[in-house]
Amino acid sequence: MTYRKRRYYSKEDKNLIWDRWKSGASQHDIARLFSTGHSSIGRIISETGGFRPPERKRSTSALKLSEREESSRSIVANLSIRSIAVHLSRAPSTISREINRNGGYDNYRATKADHNAWINALRPKLCKLYGQTMLCKIIETKLRKKWSPQQIAGWLKIKYSEDESKHVSHETIYKSLFIQTRGVLKKELQRCLRSKRTIRRAKTSTLKGRGLGTIPDAVSISERPASVEDRAVPGHWEGDLIDILGHHGMYKMVPTYILKELGGWKTLSMVEKYAHFDSTHLEQFVGNVLVGGRSSRYRWLR
Predict the structure, then answer these.
(1) What are phi and psi of 177, to 5 degrees?
(2) CB within 8 Å of 245: residues ≥ 6 apart
(3) Does pLDDT of 137 surpass 80?
(4) Is pLDDT of 31 > 70?
(5) CA distances in angstroms from 36 to 7, 29, 44, listed in the order given
(6) What is the value of pTM for the model shown?
(7) Which residues contact 67 (CB under 8 A, 6 or more apart)?
(8) How confident is residue 125, by pLDDT bands cut at 50, 70 and 90?
(9) Is the model's pLDDT at 288 over the cut of 50?
(10) Residue 157 backbone class (left: φ over 0; alpha: ψ -120 to 50; beta: rest)
(11) Contacts 24+ apart (CB under 8 A), 204-210
(12) Three-point CA angle 243, 244, 246, nearest 5°
């Protein structure tokens, strides 16, 4: 068995993936752009529940890489912290904290310090539902009653019009359902959504017009010969599917065939044990019926 080599995506690749996803493309369509499997694309999209992660930006007040490099050169030149701060037009405390948290005066490196600052800036904000147990229970109750997140958000604004702490948007509810790392709403509540989706899709996402669920080269029933309409020619077969109530209250689809004979119509229904055919066995069954039941298994149809 051959295994596909894992694909690592650059920042530009991920931007293209999210652009296509937001435009309504499926995971299979996006995967074909990179000549890879759809599971590779699904891994990136499912990490944030189908929501495009916001683009990270540095704060305008944070030290830049050029300032850190200048600080490193000034340290090599044995300049004091106050001299470095005056040269960069920064507060001495800012330069002191920068140097002390990145190796000290003797081990400071600008590139490493800049990388650490970018990593340490990851401080995800807790969602509004975090820690609000009662509000989460209210939302859970409404979801189990098949309310949509839009209905719940509107109802909360009316019910608790004077308490803004209980006002949440429908996007907050969706994100809490699809992004399970938030640890707010249970994953099983996703089944309560009307769409039954486990990931956020774009509004423009649709499978219409892609030829899915259709029979290739299908012949319309309107193209039947005229002799079939009056059912006057003996030897013609008609087939249909009938719902019957089987064991344990489960419904089954039982194929029923009708043969036109000289003396009238003869109905030939399949017995219950033949109701679980897959497509291969059903095709074989119909073939045997049409040739007169050559197989001993279907002699009862003659």
Answers:
(1) -80, -45
(2) 251
(3) yes
(4) yes
(5) 8, 10, 13
(6) 0.49
(7) 88, 90
(8) confident
(9) yes
(10) alpha
(11) 204/23, 204/24, 205/24, 205/25, 205/26, 206/24, 207/26
(12) 135
Long-range contacts of residues 147-155, Cβ cutoff 8 Å, at least 24 apart: 148/193, 148/194, 149/173, 149/174, 149/193
Domain ranges (residues) in the chain = 11-46, 65-120, 133-192, 230-301
Dig out the tokens for 161 from the structure: 């019009």
Cβ atoms of 193 and 178 closer than 8 Å? no
Q: Looking at this protein, which amino acid is placed at residue 35?
A: S
Per-residue pLDDT at 298: 42
Q: Are 75 and 108 in contact (CB under 8 A)?
A: yes
Written as six digits, the tokens of 162 are 């004077």
| Beta carbons within 8 Å of 159's beta carbon, 6+ residues apart | 166
Distance between CA atoms of residues 123 and 77, nearest Å: 35
pLDDT at 295: 45
Determine contact, residues 203/221, Cβ cutoff 8 Å: no
The whole-angstrom separation of Cα 292 and Cα 295 is 9
Tell me how far apart the alpha carbons of residues 2 and 60 are, in angstroms, rounded to a whole number. 49
Mean pLDDT of the chain: 77
Return d(Cα 73, Cα 81) in angstroms, integer: 12
Whole-angstrom Cα Rg for the chain: 34
Q: Say what the pLDDT of residue 261 is.
A: 59
| Residue whose entry in the numeric block shows the structure tokens 């044990």 | 273
Mean pLDDT (whole number) for 98-118: 91
Higher pLDDT, 256 or 230: 230
| Best CA proximity match to 63, nearest among 106, 108, 107 | 108
